[in-house]
């Protein structure tokens, strides 16, 4: 939903009014909450035919913009097309996520001996999950349908090259995410973080995001007042975040989910924001949205040389090698012991965000795409 909200804001900057239509199961709520003024229309999650019919009635716009190339988004948009242009946005390499069999990581070493066994196990696993239309089994099979879309956008160069897409990075509304609107000390106090050196990670903890390397760096520094503050995340009872808190109870503070409108004040509480991606396929395909959270709020950033990150920041951050607690510890020491230098990096990051990653900048890209689509309709 965070990417969907960004696309809606960028479309508004391009002069297009946007609604968001999506499915909810009984008892669910929309997370994160939409920003003020954006209309979000829920439709039933199942059965699938009912979802398609409800979406077709609710999606009254001149363009259908599917967020993610999945059966539940692109597939529904194509079924609801009715002569309208269909666009699709890619912000993850879908085949990597959501339900890959555990055995996949083991297969390479033993496939020559037990290949048939593992193929049978994978087939059985996939068959059990066929009812879940967001499962990677279906995501991989919907990707060829992207050729039927009138336009494709992607938030990293890796994905743009892979899918022949228009590069549309992640971004922020820099009028809402504006550090001048917040007092950092007050924000820390309101969140119960007064007196701590706050190193913040806004988002869902996953192994490829490298939080273990940050916590190992904390062990090296052994500063009694430093805390890794993990904010929100998509999953209730997130097993990976719980594991980090169990292994490093001294350092980890978990904050709950916040509505989109509250996030600028939450990020304002940070002394430093971290995005310590490890060098994996998943990480190379991602644009960590926490980067633009921090850039817009002029926060010092510690991150790694993975994927598009060095280009996005272009010297306006502490960029270190991936999977190196020692390098992260050195960057933390630099950030806290040279606060004027860290502040200047944050200010340069905000300037860069306004210029390249604001919703206004993304709106210019989408306005060009609208014009191209109008000239070359399918």
Please outline what is shown here.
This protein is an alpha/beta fold.
Instruction: Give the H and E element order.
Output: HEEHEHEHHEHEHEHEHEHEHHEHEHHH
Give, in spatial order, the strands making up the sheet with the most strands.
9-8-7-10-11-12
Structurally, how many domains make up the residues? 2
Q: Over all CA atoms, what is the radius of gyration?
A: 21 Å
Anisotropy-based shape: globular
Percent of residues in beta strands?
A: 5-15%
Q: How far apart are the termini?
A: 28 Å
Could you state the CATH homologous superfamily of the largest domain? Glycogen Phosphorylase B
Describe the secondary structure blueprint for this structure.
Elements: H1 2-13, E1 19-24, E2 39-44, H2 48-58, E3 64-67, H3 71-79, E4 86-90, H4 104-128, H5 136-142, E5 151-154, H6 157-163, E6 166-167, H7 184-190, E7 197-202, H8 211-221, E8 226-231, H9 239-247, E9 252-255, H10 263-268, E10 272-275, H11 281-284, H12 289-296, E11 301-304, H13 309-313, E12 318-320, H14 325-337, H15 339-357, H16 359-375
Parallel strand pairs: 1-2, 3-4, 4-5, 5-6, 7-8, 7-10, 8-9, 10-11, 11-12
